[in-house]
Amino acid sequence: MPTERIELEAPLDDAFQGVIRLVVGGIAEQASLGLEAMDDLQLAIERLLAETGGDGRVKISFELADSGGVRARIGPLREQPLNAALRESDGETGTLSLQRILATVVDSFGVEREADGEIVVRMEKLGPARS
Amino acid sequence: MTTEERAGRTAQQREDRELLRRYHEDGDTSARERLIARHLPLVRSLARRYAGRGEPLEDIEQVGAIGLIKAIDRFDLEREVSLATYATPNVVGEIKRHFRDKGWAIRVPRSLQELNARMSGAIDDLTGLLGHSPSVAEIAQSLGTTTEEVLEALEVGSAYSALSLDAGPGSDDDNDPMDTIGAEDEEFDRSEDRVTLSPALQRLPDREREILRMRFEEGLPQTQIAERVGLSQMHVSRLIRRSLATMREELG
Q1: Interface check B168 vs A, CB under 8 A
Q2: Minimal CA–CA distance to A59: which of A100, A106, A119, A105?
Q3: ipTM of the shown complex
Q4: H helices then E strands: how many in chain A?
Q5: CB-CB contact of B62 with B180 (8 Å)
Q6: Quick one: which of A36, A61, A130 has its CA closest to B133?
C-alpha cells in the first residue's frame, strides 16, 4: 500500500486546538499508535504551535509510514521564536525548553525551509513495532 | 445509629478537635496533615455525587480536597460544630464552583461525558492486561463503542478548563493544597539543585513539577509515572499539558 498522505489547514486559534487534536488522534489511530504515542504526538504539535505558531493559519501534513508511525510537517512557523525555542537549553531558562519537550515526545524532528522561504518543522513518531 | 456508633463518632470528633487545636494554636502542621488524611474519605464520598458529569472522579476529589483544606484552615475553635459538618458545605461549594467556573465551556453530550468518565479506568486496566499503552481501537472494543467516540471522549476530557494550579487553601500565605497532599520526593529535591528553576516552574505544585521531571528528565512513559504518583494515565496526561501551558503563559 502506498504511503497515505493527509493534509489539514486550520486557523491558529485556540478554538481550533481541539479540532487539530482530534485530527491528530484519528491519524495516530490509523497508524496503530498506542494511546501514549498518540498523546505524545498531540502534545508535540500543540506545544510547537503554542510557542512558534504565527497569527494566521497553519498547514499540517501527515504521512502514514508503511512500516507504521506518522510523519508530520507543520508550518509556516515564526522563524525567530522557533530558533530561540530550539536553541535554548533547560539550564539557561530554568524551565522546560521546546527542544527538550520535542526530543522526549517524538522520535525525530528537524527544521526545514521550504522553497517559498517558509519555515516548517518535520517530526516523526514511530509505530508500535519500533517505538 | 447505635450507641457504639455514636460513641465512636464522638471520640473521632474529640480527636479532630484536639488536632485542630494543635494546628491553630501551636502551629503543628502535622496535625493539619492528619486532619486532611482523616477526612479525605468524606471528600471522596461527596465527590462521587458529582461523578459522571464528564470530569474524572479524581479531578473532582482533588477540587473537593481544596475545600476540605480551606475548612480546616478557617475552622474556628469556638464553634460548637464538628469538622465534618463544617467541612461538608466547603467541599461541596468548592466542587460546585469548579463546575460553574472551570467546568464545561461548551455543551457536551451526556453520553460522551459518561464515556470519558468510564475510559480512565478502562485504559489503566487495558494497560495492565496488554502490557502496553492500548490503542484507541482496543479501548473502543473494551468499552463496546467506536474509535470515533473514544477520540471524541478523549478530547472532551481535554476540553474543560484546567483547575487553577495556583488555587490555594485560603490566604496568600498558605501553601498550595497539592503541596500538602503530595508526598515529598528526595529525587525531586536533588533535581531542583541541578538547575535554577524559573519562577514559572517554581510556581507549579510539587506534584506537577515532579511529573514533568519524570517525563522530561527521566523519560518515563506516562503509565509508569501514573503508577508512581498514584493517578491514572489520563490524569497524568492532562497534568503534563496543563503544566506546560501554564508555564508558557507565565513566560509570556
Answers
A1: no
A2: A119
A3: 0.90
A4: 5, 5
A5: no
A6: A36
